[in-house]
Amino acid sequence: MAESSQTDQPDNHSTHETPAHDRLGYVPTDIEPRWQQYWVDNGTYEVNNDDPRPRYYVLCMYPYPSGPAHQGHVRNYTFGDLLTRYRTMQGDAVLSPIGFDSFGLPAENAAIKSGIHPRVFTDERIEELSSSLKRIGASYDWRRMVTSHDPEYIRWTQWIFLKFYEAGLVYRGNSPVNWCPGCQTVLANEQVNADGTCDRSGDIVERRDMEQWFYKITDYAQELLDDIEGLEWPNKVKTMQQNWIGRSEGAEFGLPVADANGKPRTDIEPVRVFTTRPDTSFGMTFAVMAPEHSMVDAVTTPENKDAVAAFQADVAGKSEIDRLSNDGEITKRGVFTGTHLVNPFTGKTVPLYLADYVLTTYGTGAIMAVPGQDQRDWDFAEAHGLEIIRTIEPPADFEGKAYTGDGPSVNSEWLDGLEITDAKKKAIAWLEEQQLGEQKVNYRLRDWLLSRQRFWGCPIPMVYCDNCGVQPVAETSLPVLAPDEVEFTPTGQSPLLNSDEFLVTECPTCEGPARRETDTMDTFVDSSWYFLRFADPTNTDAAFDMNAVGDWLPVDQYIGGVEHAILHLMYARFFTKALADLGIAPKDLREPFKRLFTQGMVKLGGTKMSKSKGNVIAPEAIIDSQGSDTLRLAHMQVKPPAEDVDWEDFGLDGCHRFLNRVWRLARTETDQLPKVRTGAATKADNEIEAATHRFIDKVTSDYERWSYNTAVAAFMEFTNLLYKYVQSEDGPHDHTTAFAVDSLLLTMAPAVPHITAELWTHRHDGAHIHQQQWPVADPDKLKSETVTMIVQVNGKLRDKIEVSVDISEQDAEALALASEPVIRQLAGGTPKKTIVRAPKIVNIVS
RNA sequence: GCCCGGGUGGCGGAAUGGCAGACGCGGCGGAUUCAAAAUCCGCUGCCCGAAAGGGCGUGUGGGUUCGACUCCCACCCCGGGCACCA
Fold first, then answer.
1. Residue A73 CA distance to nucleotide B36 C1' (Å)
2. CA torsion angle A560 A588 A222 A527 (round to 10)
3. Which nucleotide is nearest to A442 (CA to C1')?
4. Nearest nucleotide to A705 by CA–C1' distance?
């Protein structure tokens, strides 16, 4: 490698008294471990809760411990580390903690495969990943490490569960769930592939109705929606959350069941429907119910029983994915119930169908169908020969089927002529007046199904008592821990189901025999409050101290992958709000993450890097050869941080070459310069000084706006400039160069911490660069006396003239008109008009 | 289908109404060297031209403006998310 040949060559500029290590070239494998040890030994990035400096909380999403770091980790933690070091140099007390999201399926699967206990397996992976993170040079307050599977953390996760239970934010309910027969557990939606198979095992996911535990996140739907606006998050993520919550306004009302004469029956409740378009109610020509609707039996006539039952069975056998995959087919699958409902707007009867395009989980599970204004209803009506009435007048040139645009109401009696907004208002007012229904807001957001039929997760602290029913475990008995002596079998069943040691307990209420809940919590529960625990990670009396959380939270900068845009970030927001409302977290802490940055994914040849694909470029191998500073710099340089990157585009060699250049510049510049220069500042001094201030200003603003690729460009450009001057005959004074080189090192220190620390300590008698103040550009020095004025003819560049910054408009125009290329372009003609923006530009229109 | 991004040299990208292509990679040339590596310096959008110089050029087509990669309208293509949500 490059550096090894250099180490053998004596430095030409060195004299015999230079210490041996000074003659060494840049050898990252030598300097990097030393500095990593130094930061740990000196507690450089440890902060206490009584730190008097201004607070700043930087957090990278804590990782699932999967073994040594991969490039995605490097990318994430490089940016986080850069910010931590940058803010520290700015004078802030920066809380930069790390932890591990250490519950999850891989550890359990490993246990099934090899018999290693998940804890042992997990602790080993944590060890590997911690070591990797240190080798990247990431700086943390390791004293604050939090792991999800730590009994102390489990205790407080369970405690919070109980508090939510007391507050009515936890309930047990029946719900159709994604069940993977291979994994023997329910799955979150994101664990199901688009083709309906399990992301992990490949089995076809089934829909099952199961009693499960839920967090009542829907209680917070409106607040979760409202508070998105105030977040400094990527718009993409904010939009995704808004769509996920999916607020829609409309009306809910009852459609009475009709008797044989078409009159409303009083012996059966009306069928409730939700619609966002009450203004189109006169166009309702049929109604549709979800096949799982609780009223199906009651509304099905005897002669239709068989057909309805067959349809229900058919739908039940399908996964949700299958059921929705009919999209695009012209025929809407459905069956007639034999019953008619009364459209209260017209008094006429409409047939009631079951159809799988109506979902039981949204709204009331039943709809009024208005084929004239809804394409799904239109398709169904065509397939089943049902009437279609337009109630909104489409434009004359409209050629489609259902018309969903604006227009005046028609065929709607007392709504005729009204535009949609007014018609909606009037229709809702009428419904309320008639006491048939009311205005209603619906959300797409569902409650959070938190139970998992797995071993390696936080046990749900509930017991089942034959006398008292479901009972919460007493707070004093926490934590509920899974036993160690269990057998992992390849059936995939949780070993807890067969562990008497765990199962058998007594009822906290009546002290009679009881059985423990064997389900564990979704791992997203653990990650929903860890950022609070970091403020006070060793507290044994509470989940966290209110004041500590108040002092550090909200997180000033949260950094992670966009794949968590909805789930984790929504859950964490919900937890924070609920904890604040319960008086556990500060009342005014409404949002956990003030600012969010989502970094891009690292791919190889266009596909995601993953162990299973075997296309992994191991960071450690690069750290071994070129060093972590080179790797970090390459991650910064390759692309804007928010974008996905391909490993093929990385310029490792270029970055390594550059660091070598910086090394040589910082170690040898004084030897290459005329030793003592006195007297007035030279032209070179002035230019370098001005360039240094511009450079500091540029890097600072690039750091602030997450433009790390251009910051690297600035490092390189500035270094190139210094090389040019240092080598010239009439170079700058020593102190000018020293100022420039020091500024370069200081601004690079957050990005490439090891090389800059090493160079700084040599240049400044053992001082530590990361304890230096961030350099500030002098605003006066940013202004230059002359500037290049652009001269255009008809908007095209024709000349550049060096002018004084305060040149008058008249002088600027005169100079431009006197320019040789301008005269040639004008060819004797007189300009029609001249636009002068002194001193930047003159545009001559001919 | 809907909602977000994005489209600029051979490649990654820079430029938030005013010099298009910073910086890096790759390529070419030079210095150094016995030679090579490393290093240092220079050139490098396309076309015409010996040069001076000129023409063209930021997905496509229009528009606004003295001036548009940048703003507006329409369209094409690529990436991502959501997807029968009534």
1. 39
2. 30
3. B85
4. B16
- pLDDT confidence of residue A544: 97
The model's pLDDT over A446-505, given as tens digits with 9 standing for 90+, comes to 888 899 888 999 999 999 999 999 999 999 998 999 998 888 887 767 888 888 889 999
Q: Determine the distance between A399 (CA) and B75 (C1') in angstroms.
A: 21
What phi, psi does A556 have (nearest 5°)?
-70, -40
Distances (CA, A) of A520 to A11, A103, A157, A212, A752: 63, 10, 11, 11, 42
Query: What Å value separates CA A605 and C1' B21?
Result: 26
Whole-number Å distance between alpha carbons of A592 and A573: 6
Listed in sequence order, the DSSP H helices in A619-682 are 619-625, 628-638, 652-672
CB atoms < 10 A from the CB of A275, how many?
Answer: 26
Q: Are A463 and A457 in contact (CB under 8 A)?
A: no
Tell me if A831 sits within 8 A of A846, measured CB to CB: yes
Question: What are the φ and ψ backbone dihedral angles of A232, each rounded to 5 degrees?
Answer: -90, 70
User: For residue A643, which nucleotide's C1' is closest to its Cα?
Assistant: B5
Residue pair A463/A283 in contact (Cβ under 8 Å)? The answer is no
CA A216, distance to chain mean position in Å, is: 22
Residue with minimal CA–C1' distance to B20 is A797
Give me the pLDDT at residue A730, please: 72
pLDDT number for residue A787: 85
Å from the A721 CA to the B42 C1': 15
Could you tell me the distance in Å between the CA of residue A647 and the C1' of nucleotide B11?
13
Nucleotide in closest CA–C1' contact with A360: B85
Spell out where A794-839 has E strands. 796-804, 833-837
**pLDDT at residue A13, rounded to an integer:** 34
Query: Is the Cβ–Cβ distance between A278 and A251 less than 8 Å?
Result: yes
Beta bridge partners, A271, equal: A255
The token pair that represents A343 in the structure block: 């459209």
Peptide bond into A479 cis (omega under 30): yes
Question: What beta strand segments (E) does A551-604 contain?
Answer: 557-561, 596-599, 602-604
Query: Across all residues in chain A, what is the average pLDDT?
Result: 88
Q: CA at A29, C1' at B27: how many angstroms apart? A: 32
Q: Which nucleotides of B are covered by protein (CB under 7 A)?
A: 3-5, 11-15, 18-20, 22-26, 37-42, 53-55, 66-68, 79-86
- pLDDT tens per residue, range A524-538: 999 999 999 999 999
Residues present in chain A in total: 846
Q: What pLDDT digit, counting tens, does each position of A639-678 carry?
A: 999 999 999 899 999 999 999 999 998 886 544 444 445 6
Which residue has its C-alpha nearest to nucleotide B18's C1'?
A841
pLDDT of A19 higher than 70: no
**Measured CA to C1', what is the nucleotide nearest A563?**
B81
**pLDDT for A543-554, tens place per residue?**
999 999 999 999
Q: Which two tokens stand for residue A809?
A: 């408009």
pLDDT in tens, A325-355: 554 444 568 899 999 999 999 999 999 999 9
Residue A685 has pLDDT above 90, yes or no: no
- Record the pTM: 0.91
Pair A366, A357: CB distance under 8 Å: no
Sign of the CA dihedral running A60, A153, A115, A204 = negative
Distance from residue A709's CA to nucleotide B10's C1', rounded to whole Å = 21
Rounded-to-integer distance, Cα A170 and Cα A666, Å: 61
For residue A685, count other CB atoms closer than 10 A to its CB. 19
Residues 6+ apart with CB under 8 A from A2: A656, A660
Q: What pLDDT, on a 0 to 100 scale, did the predictor assign at position A624?
A: 94
